[in-house]
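dolichyl-phosphate beta-glucosyltransferase, pasting as requested.
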Amino acid sequence: MDTIDTLTLFMELYLLLLIWSPAPIITRSSETFYRSPKSPTKPLPLTRLDDEATVDLSVVIPAYYEVERLPIMLEQTIAHLESVNVQRRNSAKKGKGTKTNSKEESKSPPRTYELLIIDDGSTDKTPELSLSLAQSTYPQIDIKIISMAENQGKGAVVRHGMLYSGGRQLLMVDADGATRFEDLEPLWDAMEEITGGDEGGEGVVVGSRAHMVKSEAVVKRSFIRNMLMRSLHTLLLLVGVGHIRDTQCGFKLFSRPAARKLFPHQHLPSWMFDVELLLLAKAQDIPVREVDVEWHEVGGSKLNVVKASLGMLRDLGVIRGNMMLGRWGVGKGRKVKVE
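Structure tokens follow.
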């Protein structure tokens, strides 16, 4: 192949990269406001990631046609968070007035939290159901419902939720409830170890299902899904995140300082956005730790395996190509544009 042929091939690949690369993620003004049980009709402004933290934990829940699965997931999530706080209050009462427990008490006050349900343009009443549940069942819980102006994809929705969260730590979790929410605690402990309890510390803790490869839950999945999982890991070795055994588990915890260094630089709106985030963390030496979580398959998935497989190949190529050419990466994030 001579120089001209090589140059022609490069230009063709570059043109293909430009065509496949997603358009800028645009934030609509209406998406920077939320409704809640305390303000169901008048939207209120969301906290921005650049602002000071307002709660200990933000739970970011991307939702797309989740009328059936979201109520169960919310019940499990809130039950665990409230249970932890009851235990912490009881522990504080028992230790009150004793020198031996005062230090432990000061470290374990009730955990303040908010739940952000971000609807990705559903037309099945998902946002209405979310608000109704918040009003009727969880009126005392800080639940914020955000509606995207149009469907953009899971990556765009998670990015938006992170950019407009108030937590010192920020958890992304799928609306299907497939990951046991109680496994937040080992993720939380791992984050404390990474940051040393310093609010300025950077860290990412990734929920991992890799230990379940031979478990009944994974074996019972379709042959195509399992083949997709194995193929993905092989490709991730080539992309540069093969050190992470499970990049796609929808259960990840970010410290606020780490989130500030990651999500403004995220470009991918589709379901492979996790890989881009992990590459951004690797490039900035942000510590990433995997923690085993329990997981089970939940019916009602919107994933089309064939379409997802083709999209996976395209997106991994887009990530790798853009980062190699310096179009994406640290310092290459698009300023959050609000229209």
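Note for the archive: The chain has eleven helices and nine strands.
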